[in-house]
Design goal:
four-stranded parallel β-sheet, Rossmann fold, binds 6-O-phosphono-beta-D-fructofuranose, alpha/beta, 40% helix, 11 strands, 2 domains
């Protein structure tokens, strides 16, 4: 008998269900006696013994369904804060649930925060296999996370829609794209949607360079400009501040996000009419695109193979088009950022895109 626990943690994204389906198909097609325990709402389910037994039927028909059939939650604790409000040691509680159910392995689908906890549980002696999920594509050790391409499709579609209205009115438009502290989503959607200016956290911007780019387009007879702005974009000035100083400055900012600050500065300096669109959580919603369905199925069955081989303590990944694996301690605590000198940025710059630097 093989007993597997499974949970999805952190912000949801497209193809979580498809990935779990891949894991379960890969196991149940190769082993007769399997018990699958699905924990509700991420690590919370493991801490508070909130789970249900699942059969292969639960994973049928979910390839195309967005969200997660298990539910998810943000990580319930910072690693430093191990006790919950009632004094329960959450790490010990997770270990106890794992032992009580006599699990052979825990499959964890999540992003960066999730991987820190997964690595901690591995260090505590649990058999762990993880899968890289996030629309941000910021997980170390994999070229691609599932969810990313689906979000690129949605953000690109938003830019496409804005294009026609921006052109009709001759306006400057900002489309604010998710991505947390990295610019992958904005970079790809910005290039795919033909944004004129792309602002990402990895390349701090100078407002005067942005205005120059807008003026240059005006002079060339192009009355509208589209900016794809990452939610984590940062000005050159702010990038010089310490973490603490920046936190304080943003706390006191009158703007709800960086896009509003940039818009106010452009309006003040150029008098141009400017509008902001924030697609927000739409970028994480809906059905996974075909690329993500394929990727998550490949990663899911690869995770199943690791379990069958008893090869624990790894995240499945994709590197140069091939399925691979990375030890969890190499993944935890690292962020995969866009490299400003990379060829994708060079190509975009060569094609006339401004990065505001
Ligand atoms: O990590 C995925 C993500 O969608 C980020 O792009 C975004 O910054 C964050 O989650 C939003 O988190 P929440 O769903 O908690 O608002």
């Amino acid at each position: 008998m093989l007993r597997i626990g499974m949970l999805t943690s952190g912000g949801d994204c497209q193809a979580l269900n498809a990935a779990m389906r891949g894991v379960v198909k890969g196991i149940t097609n190769n082993i007769q006696e399997v018990e699958i325990y699905g924990f509700s709402e991420g690590y919370k389910g493991l801490i508070y013994e909130n789970y249900r037994m699942l059969t292969s039927g639960d994973f049928s028909g979910i390839l195309t369904r967005g969200g997660t059939i298990l539910g998810t939650s943000r990580q319930p604790f910072k690693l430093m804060k191990i006790l919950d409000e009632n004094g329960l040691n959450k790490v010990e509680a997770m270990k106890a649930t794992y032992s009580k159910l006599n699990l052979d392995c825990l499959v964890i689908l999540g992003g960066n925060g999730t991987h820190k906890t997964a690595n901690l549980l591995k260090d505590e002696g649990l058999n762990i296999v993880t899968l890289p999920k996030t629309i941000d594509n910021d997980i170390w050790g994999t070229d691609m996370t599932f969810g990313f391409q689906s979000a690129v499709d949605i953000a690109t579609n938003a830019i496409d829609c804005i294009h026609t209205t921006a052109a009709s009115h001759g306006r400057v438009f900002i489309v604010e794209v998710m991505g947390h502290k990295v610019g992958w989503l904005t970079l790809h959607a910005g290039i795919a949607g033909g944004a004129d200016i792309i602002l990402i956290p990895e390349i701090p911007y100078d407002i005067d360079r942005i205005i120059e780019a807008i003026e240059k387009r005006k002079k060339a007879g192009k009355g509208f400009t589209i900016l794809a702005v990452a939610e984590g974009a940062i000005s050159k000035e702010n990038s010089q501040l310490s973490k603490k100083e920046l936190k304080e400055k943003l706390k006191n900012s009158p703007y709800p996000s960086v896009s509003y600050e940039i818009a106010a500065q452009i309006q003040k300096k150029t008098g141009q009419e400017i509008r902001i669109t924030v697609p927000g959580h739409m970028q994480r919603g809906g059905s996974p695109c075909p690329y993500d369905r394929v990727l998550s199925t490949r990663l899911g069955t690869a995770a199943a193979q690791l379990i069958l081989d008893k090869d624990f303590g790894n995240m499945v990944s994709i590197v140069n088009g091939d399925i691979s694996k990375v030890p969890l301690d190499q993944v935890a605590g690292k962020l995969k950022m866009v490299i400003p000198e990379s060829s994708i940025i060079k190509v975009a710059k060569l094609g006339g895109t401004s990065f505001g630097d």
